[in-house]
Amino acid sequence: MINTPTEQLEKKPYQSPGLQFLSFAGIFIGFIIAANLVAVAIAAALYGMDTVMGIGQGNVNAPHVINTLWILQIIGTTLPVFAAPVFFAYVIVKDPQDYLKPTFRFPLILMALIFCVMFIASPLIEFLSNINEKMVLPHFLSGVQKWMRDSEDATQKLETVMFKMDTIWDMIKNLVVIGLLTAIAEEFMFRGVIQTIFSRWTKNIHAAVWITAILFSAFHVEFFSFLPRVLLGVLLGYFAAWSGSIWTAVWAHFINNGTIVVATYLYQDKKITLSPDDNHVFNNKLYIISLVIVLFLMYVYRYITLNKKPLPEY
């Protein structure tokens, strides 16, 4: 079903959206705890508990740190983020079509539009990143700000280790796991289950998109990149809501993550000189141009979803 948010909202779930959200939150917490216990047990059995504890303390020089990080990432995070919404959609609400939106029935031109939007939005992402980096809390919250900064620095240290790519095969592995699998898992959870719950709860797709985007950004617990991730979540939310398919959002998410992986590899391999972490590439003029073009392309995207017939589903 494409572009029928009001019809979708009229379907009455077996429990209220508020209870659905609480149910899903409980399921997700249970899945994440169980998965992390399994991941820690596997990592400890293979590489020793000292390595696991060292990672928890931010020690990136612990032995077998890379392999351990991958175990914790895939089993402890990616797998439960994927499994919880699938379980909820199939077992709890028994409505995977609405809560996961797995249909491929949408105009393929949307994929090309998404590709353009994701790259043209780069200046906007940079603009919000620079605003976020300058965020200063009131003096009485200086302790909170220090904790936020220390937490983000520790996370970035671990991400730097995971993003270390010596060969093209390392790049392909990161492209599959960080680019594709993470995109599928997070989109099933956020633009699938959570956005659907909030669309039913608020009866307003715009409110649902923005609330979900804020939760999506908060989930990553990276305070100094909160605003650009909210923007990313908003784009992903409208891609899924207007097309009626989760795969448009997965494609956009993959482009975002995959571009970071490829650019990081090329920079590490000295194929390019521009660091992917450089947030001073564009200027004010390009920020404005980026905003105007992105808004125009989103209008075109919406227009196509309203006026084009979907592809037949095989």
Identify the notable features of this structure and list them briefly.
13 helices; single chain; 314 residues; mainly alpha
Fold topology:
Layout: H1 5-10, H2 17-47, H3 49-56, H4 65-92, H5 96-100, H6 109-120, H7 122-133, H8 142-162, H9 168-202, H10 205-219, H11 226-243, H12 246-268, H13 284-307
Quaternary status of these chains?
single chain
How would a crystallographer describe the biggest sheet? none
The class by helix and strand makeup works out as mainly alpha
User: How many extended strands?
Assistant: 0
Average pLDDT rating: 89
Share of residues in strands? under 5%
Shape estimate:
globular
User: How many independent structural domains?
Assistant: 1
Number of alpha- plus pi-helical segments: 13
Helix content: over 70%
Describe this structure in words.
Residues 6-13 have low confidence and may be disordered. The chain is an all-alpha fold and 314 residues long. Helices cover 76% and strands 0% of the residues. Helix 6 crosses helix 12, helix 9 packs across helix 11 (226-243) and helix 9 packs antiparallel against helix 12 (246-268).
Brief digest:
The protein is mostly helical. The protein has one domain.
